[in-house]
DNA sequence: GATCGACGGTGACATTTGTCAGATCCGCCG
DNA sequence: CGGCGGATCTGACAAATGTCACCGTCGATC
């Protein structure tokens, strides 16, 4: 029996995935969580064989949760389950110690299959996505550029961002400018979109 | 036996929801679709009692699909199932003839419950969301303002938008300016965010 | 028939944004 | 030690953005 923890913020989707896994005779969902920190807590408690973590969750993403679970429950294999197959996500997931990366676009049957494969010690990564992630290279944004771009994403003005990050307006403009350059964008909105689609934010 | 059509673009979520509904003895999933147009086609084919439609789908959203299904299969009750409980979505869903509006945040048990209730002729709408939708009022953006704002959402410049919509740059700026005003935003990025969060885009 | 709102436009203006050339620190690496 | 890159800043400049006032045409509505 493979003991699985499932972390996913949308209750209906979580319930549906539980029922999907429930169809498998050799898989048992022993814990559920709706946020990253909750997933870590539950993992510590139930010590599952496999943790299925969504990336897009409120209050700390699935990737940080993955790293913490690897540390606290070393025997637990971490599978990342995400809506978006972004290269940067895959890279960060691997660095956080995940052994599988599934996108929700793939057929439902993949889920149970992936759980079994990671339990046997295999890795499960979509080869196309892996190729894209490798060819795209790592995140070119410096930490500070990333911060500033993220702060600009919600429509804040340069002044707002400068205040929030305790920087001068000129510095903020400089970081934005270089982020725009590195993302091959023409303005901050495009830069934000490109960075997002690459999983750099 | 309640015959259900399920339209949802993410295959894994779709499969999971099918398995969830499969647990119910009185519910049978008789059709699946991954896009709006496909949902309409399948509905015409299988004539389900209830159609469960996701809003966020590629190639024509679930709301237009809802309207078309109502027209072509009048006996079919339409349930909208969405990630985001946006007031504007609810309003448009109701105008398109949907009888229920579910957010994926709600517990998995709500799904089967809603299917049964709409089959009995009831409507299923979260009271809180309904209150928000009513108090927020209708979409204040004129069709053209909406077009221009939508075109600005991906980081296009005024020139790009003007070209794409066959308008002068001045006109584009005017529409953007009034959209920014109506959304109480300070720039186009904020305007896009606000309009999105209200379901006006 | 007058009024109103949506549509489309012009021109001028102030503000914001994006770019560039520097400059200073600091830590790291050969 | 010297050099390099990251972080931070300044000042100046050009381009894009946002605002405003005002002009017309429609079609609907009172």
Automatic annotation (TrEMBL), chains A, B:
<feature type="domain" description="Response regulatory">
    <location>
        <begin position="3"/>
        <end position="119"/>
    </location>
</feature>
<dbReference type="InterPro" id="IPR039420">
    <property type="entry name" value="WalR-like"/>
</dbReference>
<feature type="domain" description="HTH luxR-type">
    <location>
        <begin position="134"/>
        <end position="199"/>
    </location>
</feature>
<dbReference type="InterPro" id="IPR001789">
    <property type="entry name" value="Sig_transdc_resp-reg_receiver"/>
</dbReference>
<dbReference type="Pfam" id="PF00196">
    <property type="entry name" value="GerE"/>
</dbReference>
<dbReference type="InterPro" id="IPR016032">
    <property type="entry name" value="Sig_transdc_resp-reg_C-effctor"/>
</dbReference>
<feature type="modified residue" description="4-aspartylphosphate">
    <location>
        <position position="54"/>
    </location>
</feature>
<dbReference type="Pfam" id="PF00072">
    <property type="entry name" value="Response_reg"/>
</dbReference>
<keyword id="KW-0238">DNA-binding</keyword>
<keyword id="KW-0597">Phosphoprotein</keyword>
<dbReference type="InterPro" id="IPR011006">
    <property type="entry name" value="CheY-like_superfamily"/>
</dbReference>
<dbReference type="InterPro" id="IPR000792">
    <property type="entry name" value="Tscrpt_reg_LuxR_C"/>
</dbReference>
<protein>
    <submittedName>
        <fullName>DNA-binding response regulator</fullName>
    </submittedName>
</protein>
<dbReference type="GO" id="GO:0003677">
    <property type="term" value="F:DNA binding"/>
</dbReference>
